[in-house]
Design a protein that fits this description.
- It is globular and about 35 Å long.
- The protein has one helix and six strands; from the N terminus they run αββββββ.
- The protein has one domain: SH3 type barrels, CATH 2.30.30.
- 15% of the residues are buried.
- A hairpin with a 4-residue loop joins strand 1 and strand 2.
- 15% of the residues lie in helices and 47% in strands.
- The protein is of the alpha+beta class and 86 residues long.
Amino acid sequence: MKTTISCDVHDYFEIVCMRKSQITITLHSEKTISGEASDIILNQEKQECLQMRENNVLHLIPLTEIKLLHAHNNPISAHNFQVKIT
């Protein structure tokens, strides 16, 4: 399993959190989670994690577990994009 992500990919996560974007992420396990991006924080294992809210449930997902980030349904069309994390 990867232990880091590239800076340019990290920037996409920062952007969606800053904008509080509606996103769907796909994990390496193929599980998908949709909701509002809110922050990037460290978990107890000191991993950088995406914090997002899905139907009033707060998720904390390590960035290295995410294989696809899809920002969608945001009011400004340029804020909608898809990035494959490699």
